[in-house]
């Protein structure tokens, strides 16, 4: 969906003014697309683990995670950035969520809402919230209370 790509790219560009930021979309092979959910999650996990480093601080975007308001999320993010994490990795799951291995590897679960959103749509929602958090940290005027 072009509007998701355009919006996500816009917020990624804005975030890059504050911190190094990159986004990657990982896709499973077409041969797995019609497989059972557990098989799909296992294949997705295999791909994800190839991109993770042992020192990564892995945050899952998961409906069962901790919810924050925008200001509280900004405070939490600022605290995480002050630690000596080599990389902070935010991971959006596929249509069936995460495998148990990914849950075990994760360092934190973050929820943007109790509602469920498509993994494509959550990309733009989350990058906007990440940009909002950085603007709050820097005391800029983007966020209004």
Structural notes for this entry:
With 145 residues, this protein is an alpha/beta fold. Helices cover 46% and strands 14% of the residues. It is built from five helices and three strands. Strands 2-1-3 form a three-stranded parallel β-sheet, with helices on one face. α3 packs across α5. The N and C termini lie far apart (31 Å). The model has no long low-confidence stretch (mean pLDDT 92).
Topology (SSEs and partners):
Blueprint: H1 2-15, H2 37-51, E1 57-67, H3 70-82, E2 88-92, H4 100-105, E3 108-111, H5 119-137
Parallel strand pairs: 1-2, 1-3
Helix pairs in contact: 1-5, 3-5
Which keywords apply here?
globular, 145 residues, single chain, Alpha/beta knot, alpha/beta, 14% strand, 3-stranded parallel β-sheet, 46% helix
Task: Give the number of DSSP strands.
Answer: 3
The name CATH uses for the topology is Alpha/beta knot
Number of helices: 5
Helix fraction bin? 40-55%
The strands making up the biggest β-sheet line up spatially as 2-1-3
CATH homologous superfamily annotation: SPOUT methyltransferase, trefoil knot domain
Low-confidence stretches: none
Mean pLDDT equals: 92
Q: Output the CATH class name.
A: Alpha Beta
Order of helices and strands: HHEHEHEH
- How much strand content do the residues show? 5-15%
Which structural class do the helices and strands define?
alpha/beta
Rounded to the nearest angstrom, the radius of gyration is: 16 Å
**Per CATH, which architecture?**
3-Layer(aba) Sandwich
Q: Give the termini distance in whole angstroms.
A: 31 Å
């Amino acid at each position: 969906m072009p509007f998701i790509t355009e919006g996500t790219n816009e917020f990624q560009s804005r975030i890059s003014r504050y911190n190094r930021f990159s986004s990657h979309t990982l896709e499973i092979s077409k041969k797995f697309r019609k497989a059972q959910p557990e098989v799909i999650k296992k294949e997705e996990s295999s791909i994800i683990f190839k991109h993770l480093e042992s020192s990564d601080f892995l945050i899952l975007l998961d409906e069962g995670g901790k919810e924050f308001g925008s200001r509280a999320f900004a405070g939490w993010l600022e605290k995480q950035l002050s630690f000596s994490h080599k990389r902070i990795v935010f991971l959006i799951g596929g249509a069936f969520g995460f495998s148990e291995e990914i849950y075990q590897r994760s360092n934190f679960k973050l929820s943007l809402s109790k509602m469920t959103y498509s993994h494509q749509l959550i990309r733009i929602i989350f990058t906007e919230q990440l940009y909002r958090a950085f603007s709050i940290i820097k005391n800029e005027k983007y966020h209004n209370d």
